[in-house]
Amino acid sequence: MSGHNKWSTIKHKKGAKDAKRGKIFSKLAKVIAVAVREGGEDEMYNAKLRIAIEKAKAASMPNDNIKRAIQKGAGVSEGEDYMEIFYEGYGPDGVAMIVECLTDNKNRTAANIRHLFSKHGGNLGENGCVGWMFDKKGYFTIEKSKTTEDKLMELVLDAGAEDIKSDDENVFEVVCEQDVFEDVKKVLDDNGIECESASVTMVPQNYVKLDESGAKKMLRLMDALEDDDDVNEVYANFDIDEKIMESMEN
After folding, report:
1. What is the span of the domain harbouring residue 159?
2. How far apart are alpha carbons 106 and 167 in whole angstroms?
3. Residue 112 domain-assigned?
4. Would you tell me how many other CB atoms lie within 10 Å of the CB of residue 6?
5. Do 113 and 225 lie in a common domain?
6. Residue 217 and residue 130: Cα distance in Å, rounded?
7. Are 152 and 199 in the same domain?
8. Phi and psi dihedrals of 79, rounded to 5?
């Protein structure tokens, strides 16, 4: 499987064992609140909010939690004032990494992220040190059981998608420019094709192939970062061979 989808697939496999649902909901609530503060409460005119709510529903976040997060963002209820900060650096074996955070305390977050990079064999760098290796894109994964490659290709290419990958045995990957994300999502919804994931994300231009030792170190760092309350997303350009993944799971 190619690099970008690797971590989301690993997390999906771990999902049944993951007891951190409360922490996940807390992070999603912050994303919703920030989206409301930046673009208002109306999903029709606020694409960032619309995507955040869809992501929350996909994670089975209760509607009451979503409503409270919207109210918090709109200032109806009191809450922390979160800021969005990005950190860049290198993980084990030179893997390029971008860490997206939502925090109410920049100093605390910077210290925590630097500590985690150092503890797990990485190095936190200056802003811009790896950002040029990623492109902001719309990104979808669709289970192969939901549609055929020919039908998917016809629909999404007409809607403006730029690439479809079928390397993975379970899912199709669709990539598009961020400004046509909504068009691609709409055509999938209108044709009843359910997405496993749909987001505007940072897609690497190239990938670093990891051996088993590097893979173990990299996944420990990814886990540690995503376990931090202030971390919203982690983007990285690593790739792990399926055989290595299977050996690590057994």
Report:
1. 133-204
2. 40
3. yes
4. 24
5. yes
6. 20
7. yes
8. -175, 175
Q: What is the pLDDT of residue 196?
A: 84
Residue in the block written with tokens 């690593």: 238
Does residue 111 form part of some domain?
yes
Collapsing DSSP to helix, strand or coil, 59 comes out as: coil
Q: What is the CATH number of the domain that holds 185?
A: 3.30.70.980
Q: Does residue 185 belong to any structural domain of this protein?
A: yes
Residues 89 and 193 in one domain: no
Pairing of strands 231-236, 96-103: antiparallel
Q: How many domains does the chain have?
A: 3
For residue 8, how many other CB atoms are within 10 A of its CB? 16
Question: Helix (H, G, I), strand (E, B), or coil: what is residue 232?
Answer: strand
User: What's residue 171's pLDDT?
Assistant: 86
Which amino acid type is present at position 212? E
Contacts of 120 (CB under 8 A, 6+ apart): 91, 92, 217, 220, 221, 224
CB of 124 closer than 8 Å to CB of 228: no
- Alpha-helical runs (H) found in the chain: 3-14, 21-39, 47-58, 63-74, 106-119, 149-158, 181-190, 212-227, 242-249
Question: Over the stretch 110-153, which tens digit does the pLDDT of each residue have?
Answer: 999 999 999 999 999 999 999 999 999 999 989 999 999 999 99
Q: Are residues 143 and 196 in the same domain?
A: yes
Other beta carbons less than 10 A from residue 191's beta carbon: 13
Angle between helix axes 106-119 and 212-227 (nearest 10 degrees) is 160
Per-residue pLDDT at 111: 97
pLDDT digits (tens, 9 = 90+) for 192-214: 998 888 888 898 999 999 999 99
**CATH code for the domain of 42:** 1.10.10.200
Which amino acid is it at 67? Answer: K
Give the model's pLDDT for residue 2: 44
Q: Are residues 46 and 159 in the same domain?
A: no
